[in-house]
Amino acid sequence: MQWTDRIRQVKIVLVIAAVCIAVISLIVSHFLVRDLSKEERNKMEVWAEAMRSLNTADESTDLNLVLKVINENHTIPVVVTDTNGAVTVFRNLNVNGKEMAYADSLALATKLAGKLLRDGKVIRIELDDSLHKDHINVCYDDSVLIKRLSAWPYVQLGVVMLFVVIAIFALLTSKRAEQNKVWVGLSKETAHQLGTPISSLMAWTEILKENYPNDELIPEMGKDVLRLQLIADRFSKIGSLPEPVPSSLNTVMDNVINYMGRRIPNNVQILKEFPENDVVVKINDSLFEWVIENLAKNAVDAMNGAPGTITLHVEDTDKKAVIDVIDTGKGIKKKDVSNVFRPGFTTKKRGWGLGLSLAKRIVEEYHEGKIYVKNSEIGRGTTFRIELKK
């Protein structure tokens, strides 16, 4: 619980830090862009005044300063139109850093002038103060620097969010690896602890057979001891990668039915729906039987002593084998469906909530298959589906 709380706190801190960085960046960039826009507006007013002086100049006017102001604009895109809206002058309209033909440039300048007029980015210069008829429009756009500054906060935000995602992924991976070590250690320790009493029980069983050769219960006791040995063997394989071999899925399912049939209430019936042909898949028999047994035991628990059925349905296709474990139990609540395979989750008063978690690990990691809740209805039952590649 402490580890989970710590992970949650780290996530919250990372998200808050990312939001703060993004907000600060956006605010700083906003003020920078605003100040630069004002500065460029002032420059364009000076430039527009220079254009007015150029258009109203006579033979005695010194144009050196005027031309110097006009020619020093190398960054701000500008289009000058006359009284009729025709483009007369344009500067800095390169596209992707490449010069264009004059006709194409003129078309681009005309289109840009219309847009800038609509956006209000224009300085109107009257050429005749008395009549107010002739004028020019100096339309200007944001420079490349302002456009880049405007986009920079969003680039920063993307980088920060990518960092947060990577950090959270690393933390979750570390947590998952730590949990896996715990489950593997627990499984191997359980197998080790079971080894000694199982050996003793096997020895006592042999002694009982010699002393009571006609007792019918002793062979059954021997079967249960062998079953314990099989369970210990399964636990010892958790954490290693057992090599799957081609096996008969029909035989594996029959073994589960034979074992569970003697250990479930009389009012619960196990039904099987197998194809006529033998379905062969690569599995580890021992571990895969444990998965089906676990699903069947959960199905029995879901019936709470009420009559019902457990159906083991097997389908065979060209690419995969499908196993459905269908019960008529109490069903799973929708809010719990996504949690049933989470370690520690259980709706029963007893149990550690590890059965389905280990089943998922065996199916997905050891057999490269899929296991999930196909459907579940409260009061009607649940279907667990397993898909295995052929």
SSE blueprint and pairings:
Elements: H1 2-55, H2 64-71, E1 78-81, E2 87-91, H3 102-119, E3 122-126, E4 135-140, H4 144-211, H5 217-237, E5 245-248, H6 249-261, E6 268-273, E7 280-283, H7 285-302, E8 308-316, E9 320-327, H8 334-337, H9 355-366, E10 370-377, E11 381-389
Parallel strand pairs: 6-8
Antiparallel strand pairs: 1-2, 1-4, 3-4, 5-7, 8-9, 9-11, 10-11
Structure description:
The chain is an alpha+beta fold. It contains nine helices and eleven strands. The chain has helices at residues 2-55, 64-71, 102-119, 144-211, 217-237, 249-261, 285-302, 334-337, 355-366, and strands spanning 78-81, 87-91, 122-126, 135-140, 245-248, 268-273, 280-283, 308-316, 320-327, 370-377, 381-389. The strands form three sheets. Strands 6-8-9-11-10 form a five-stranded mixed β-sheet. A hairpin with a 3-residue loop joins β8 and β9. The longest helix has 68 residues, at 144-211. The model has no long low-confidence stretch (mean pLDDT 81).
What can be said about the biggest beta sheet? 5 strands, mixed
Output mean pLDDT.
81
Structural class by secondary-structure content: alpha+beta
- Global morphology: rod-shaped
List keywords for this structure.
rod-shaped; 4-stranded antiparallel sheet; 5-stranded mixed sheet; 17% strand; 390 residues; alpha+beta
Short description, anyone?
The chain is α+β, with helices and mostly antiparallel strands. Helices cover 55% and strands 17% of the residues.
